[in-house]
Amino acid sequence: MRTHNNLFGRIAAFETLHAANQKARKGKRCRPSCLRFEAQLEDNLIQLQHELLAGEYQLSGYRSFAVHEPKTRTITALINYRDRVVQQALIDVIEPLFEPAFISDSYACRAGKGTHAGAHRVQRMMVSRLRSHGKLYALKADVRRYFASINHATLKTLLRKKIACRQTLLLIDGIIDSYHTPGHAGTGIPIGNLTSQLFANIYLDALDQRIKCRLSEKHYVRYMDDFVVLHHDKDRLRYLRIDIELFLASQLQLELNHKTQIFPVSVRHGRGLDFLGYHIWPHKRRLRKDSLKRFKRRVRQLQRRYAEGRTHFPQIKQQLASWIAHARHGDALPAVARYLNSHPFRRSHHDRH
Question: Rounded to an integer, what is the distance from CA 172 to the centroid of its chain?
Fold first, then answer.
């Protein structure tokens, strides 16, 4: 396997850092730390470049907060905006080294992929398996506490299969070692780091390669820590589950969630596959009920903000656009339209005057 050297000069180049800032500011432009950084952008980028080249750069630290959608979990995010710029510059240089080797059926955090493409691919696989064998079973699984369980030493080993540049590895190791899951030294990466999505895909690529190449299972799709294997033989899926559990434990220090299950998928009615926010059958797709409930809660939150004058229609449209697209792919657009038509956005009387 080819390794790459002389990467750090590209990471620390002013042009790379400037381009990285343009990406890192997405969704953060109104944050005080971003505003301060961009108020003297050129000076701050030059200072960042100097610290990187001199080996003086230090990550500032993290803050933690809880989010409750789609489920309650703790997010650990960078305190200082400048660290986002460094991480984006690192991603821009090293991601192209790993991306070509990823399987095509890994759909999280990759250009041209995503939940809609993943769900469509699963449906095509279902149709193909049914056409050739007449019956269909699914192994539906996810990795238990995935981000919190990633082993630092194993992650570093996987990264070194492609990267040989000493300064780049020092930067990467510093990011990895800057955080650990409370009570578990040497384990865990923060969900809020820009690098974490790439690191997480690299980590489970070992599983992808085993299932697709070593075990020759072509009907396999993964979205971050969730994955599904489709087959006509239930016993084959039982064997795969055991193999996957042993591989995860021995090679990646991970384990499957206890909710992992094998079940038949109905052709048109009955049980479908709950995956990527949809209930999926071979010839139809439905949005999950809890997804529609979350949408309604989000609309009510935005309506309160709009009534109080704290947001405007362009921002509302932007925030709802991706969700409406998600609903469209799950045949839920009529239900969404009915809800929005019956719950219009209105300014409060005080705000109008």
Answer: 19
Q: Please name the residue ranges forming H helices in 220-348.
A: 234-247, 289-307, 313-328, 333-342
pLDDT at 29: 79
Residue 30, pLDDT score: 78
Buried-exposed string 222-257: b where 16+ CB fall within 10 A, e elsewhere: bbbbbbbbbbeeeebbeebbeebeebbeeebebebe
What six digits make up the tokens of 214? 């070593």
Q: Which of 203-207, 225-229, 299-303 has the lowest mean pLDDT?
A: 299-303
Distance between CA 227 and CA 221 in Å, rounded? 6
Tens-digit pLDDT profile for residues 51-88: 999 999 999 989 888 876 667 778 888 989 999 999 99
The answer to whether domain 115-148+189-285 has CATH 2.50.20 is: no
pTM (two decimals): 0.86
Domain boundaries, the chain: 8-101+151-177, 115-148+189-285, 288-352
